[in-house]
Amino acid sequence: MSMLIINELHASIEEREILKGISLTVNPGEVHAIMGPNGSGKSTLASVLAGRETYEVTSGSVAFDGKDLLDMAPEERAREGMFLAFQYPVEIPGVSTTNFLKTAVNEKRKAVGLAPLDAVQFMKMMKEKMSLVQIDQTLLSRSLNEGFSGGEKKRNEIFQMAMLEPRLGILDETDSGLDIDALRLVANGVNKLRNKDNAFVVITHYQRLLEYIVPDFVHVMYNGRLVKSGGKELALELEDKGYDWIKEEAHEMA
Amino acid sequence: MNTLESAIQLPVRIEQWWHAQQKKESASPVIERMQKAYASFKTHGFPHVKMEDWKYTDVRKVTEYPYAWPVKNEHRLSREYFKSFLLAGLKDVYRLVFVNGYLQEDLSILPGGDNQFTVTHLGDDKGTDHYEEYLGRVANMDTPFTALNTALHSDGVLIHIKKNAEVDKPVLVYYVALTDNDLYLIQPRNIVITEPGSKVQFAEIFVSKGVEPSLTNVVTEIKAGEGSYVDYSRIQMEENRNFQISYTGIEQQKNSRIDTHVLCLNGAFIRNDLHFTLQGSNCTSIMNGLYILDDEQFLDNHTRVDHAVPNCMSDQLYKGILNGKSTGVFNGKIIVHPDAQKTNAYQRNVNVLLSDNATINTKPQLEIFADDVRCTHGATAGFIDEEAIFYMQARGISKEEARKLLMNAYANEIVDKMNVEALKDPLREYIAQKLK
Ligand SMILES: Nc1ncnc2c1ncn2[C@@H]1O[C@H](COP(=O)(O)OP(=O)(O)OP(=O)(O)O)[C@@H](O)[C@H]1O
Ligand SMILES: [Mg+2]
After folding, report:
1. Where does A63-149 have alpha helices with state H?
2. What's the pLDDT score for residue B3?
3. Which one, of B222, B235, B287, B245, lies nearest residue B266 by Cα?
4. Atom of ligand 1 nearest to the CA of A54
């Protein structure tokens, strides 16, 4: 069964339509990359999938493991296994990453009828996942994202993803702001999390990330639509030629 | 209470209490001071909203009740009943418990025979040197409520610490308002004297139980000697029918440090005045404040720091959470007098409104008459950060839980700064309860 089926999704903000009919199917075990020019709607799609209320879905449907995703509150989606690594992670003053994740992990466990992790179990899990993205303990005891560097924020997103073990991970420009070593670390982290039961949607501007996280499909978003899809070689072609030819094609189609 | 009696206005009642007290006292310098204070109160009456400092604070809401003057030993608390109050069962502390303004001796935990410091109460000491020497020395007589308290107070704590002495345990002073039988005007008076190089932590904790309202008008005077260190907390958590007006006057000599923590966690109506006068150089004055208002609660925090000499530092952070139809007022005055060069003064007031019907009036007021100073100030009021809430939701945390996490963290920044460790956990719990 497909994990995610997006069908003709339209969404707008303040009367302005941003997503203009998106259809996309993601199966377990797959990695999809979404590329596209600035302002084309990539983050909007990610936000709508995660349940941000500022966007209004005007038509279309999204099924997640056979359930109506759009009917669920953001936290329910997360508990069902959806994870969004934010393009701009939010600062949460006064709440440490550790404390935050303890709450999040246990809320998720509660939702599936599991007992909360005790302090020892939780620390063990933390240690394990910390080594995955090589994140520093001191960072985790500070207020979440507050005063973190751009790269630290992104790495922290992947760390959180590792802790929450989602079915579907959506990475919104997780590579931007990362130095070359950090990029490799993050990509390796994602690759270690990959298995036949989960899937990833990777939003990026750069071919480079896709050298490490090799996608099964590459889609190009332009002006609120997925205007072109292909294999991983499409990313190379875009790197080479830019978006103009895509835009032209799209205009001819319209 | 019969209707005839209840029809008598508060100032008339006060006049009666005053005369009754006068009959019992013989002439002395302190009596003269009280008489002057009473005359001042009589001339000015209660403050009103046309006065700049009382613009948002209509005291008629709390003075138009037919209060009675509490009688010593009329209300007593059993040990068990006392323990049922929040923060009451703490160990390893010195303790004084005032019930409707009078000390209930059997609940006290006081230091032994050590002569390095005395923790006692005014009632015991009335007419003695300390009382005579210090009553009304620090408190600003201008405000009518302070004058009223100076003229007519029941009892209160008196802490005196000798040179270089350190009080080994925090001194917790409880003020319990019991209003099951009647409504009361309760006027405690506290005096804290630290001689050079000494150290003390003390906290004033206000709680209440009963069916009738009460008005507590409390004055605390702190005279901090050279190089002394006072950690002072005021924790207000009376019920939703009790009113409070407070004045804390602090006078600092050089190299002294005072940390203040003012936590207004509950009560129907609160007006706090906190006034620092820095008389010696190199003083540090810390002002931490937290208020959490709900329903129709009203709170006014007025603070004032008079930087009169060079090289002092004051640092203020007051944080508020306002829910329901509550109203908050913050007025923070910092006055840097012409001689007070190299002053560092920081002030911040931040507010989160959890409801559209809550109101905050915030006014930072810097008056700087010296040129070589560093002063910063800022005041903000806003709604809860929806982006942060969504971020947490996207991690599986419910909206409710996210709101609670965020608000508790926000409030606990102030609790974390407190120094009396024993108070912190119960306060965090209480705050979590109130933010539910
Ligand atoms: N809250 C908002 N209010 C108004 N317009 C918005 C809002 N959010 C997004 N938009 C608009 O929607 C369009 C798509 O934005 P989106 O962030 O989805 O683009 P993107 O493809 O992620 O771009 P980038 O590559 O720069 O991250 C943009 O024109 C943007 O200005
Ligand atoms: Mg984007």
Report:
1. 74-79, 97-111, 119-133, 137-141
2. 47
3. B235
4. 1
**Which amino acid is present at A230?**
G
Determine the 3-state secondary structure of A111 from DSSP: helix
Band of pLDDT at residue B7, cut at 50, 70 and 90:
low
Give B396's contacts in chain A (Cβ within 8 Å): 75, 78-79, 104, 107-108, 111, 164
Q: How far apart are alpha carbons B108 and B157 in whole angstroms?
A: 11
List the single residue in B with minimal CA-CA distance to A82.
B394
pLDDT tens-digit profile of A166-183?
999 999 999 988 999 999
For B394, the closest of A78, A91, A101 (CB atoms) is: A78
Instruction: Report the candidate in B195, B181, B176, B122 with the shortest Cα–Cα distance to residue B153.
Output: B122
> Is the pLDDT reported for residue A205 higher than 90?
yes
**pLDDT at B2 (0 to 100):** 43
Q: Measured in whole angstroms, how far is the alpha carbon of residue B185 from the centre of its chain? A: 16
Nearest CA to ligand 1 atom 2: A13
Q: Give the distance (Å) from ligand 2 centre to CA of residue A140.
A: 26
Q: Are B247 and B146 in contact (CB under 8 A)?
A: yes
Q: What is the ipTM of this complex?
A: 0.96
Q: Which atom of ligand 1 is nearest to the CA of A55?
A: 1
CA distances in angstroms from B138 to A231, B129, B300, listed in the order given? 80, 16, 22
> What is the rounded CA–CA span in Å between residue B144 and residue B119?
28
pLDDT at residue B30, as a whole number: 84
Cβ–Cβ below 8 Å for A79 and B396: yes
Mean pLDDT of A4-19: 96
Flag whether pLDDT at B123 surpasses 80: no
Interface test with B, best of A75, A144, A146 (most B CBs within 10 A): A75
CA angle, residues B180, B12, B33, in degrees to nearest 5: 100
* B98/A55 Cα distance (integer angstroms): 57
What digits encode the pLDDT tens for the residues B41-93?
999 999 999 999 999 999 999 999 999 999 988 889 999 999 999 999 899 99
Q: Token pair of A81, please?
A: 């296994």
Q: Average pLDDT, stretch A178-195?
A: 92
Element (H, E) at B272: strand B269-278
Which of A97-111, B7-21, B44-58 bottoms out in mean pLDDT, i.e. has the lowest?
Answer: B7-21
Which value, to the nearest 10 degrees, does the dihedral of the CA atoms of residues B388, B393, B395, B398 take?
Answer: 120
Q: Mutual orientation of helices A97-111 and A119-133 as an angle, nearest 10°?
A: 110
Mean of the per-residue pLDDT values for chain B?
A: 93
Helices within B175-272 (DSSP H only): none
User: Which pairing describes strands B117-121 and B184-186: parallel, antiparallel, or unpaired?
Assistant: unpaired
B334 within 8 A of B363, measured Cβ to Cβ: no
User: What whole-number distance in Å separates Cα of residue A209 and Cα of residue A180?
Assistant: 10
Q: What is the DSSP letter of B111?
A: -
DSSP state of A69: G
A114 touches B at CB < 8 Å: no
Q: What is the DSSP string of B44-109?
A: H-S--TTSGGGTT--THHHHSS--B---TTSS---HHHHHTSTTTT-SS-EEEEEETTEE-GGG-B
Residues B126-173: pLDDT tens digits?
556 777 788 888 776 678 999 999 999 999 998 999 999 999 999 999
Residue (of B333, B326, B404, B412) closest to B365 by Cα position: B333
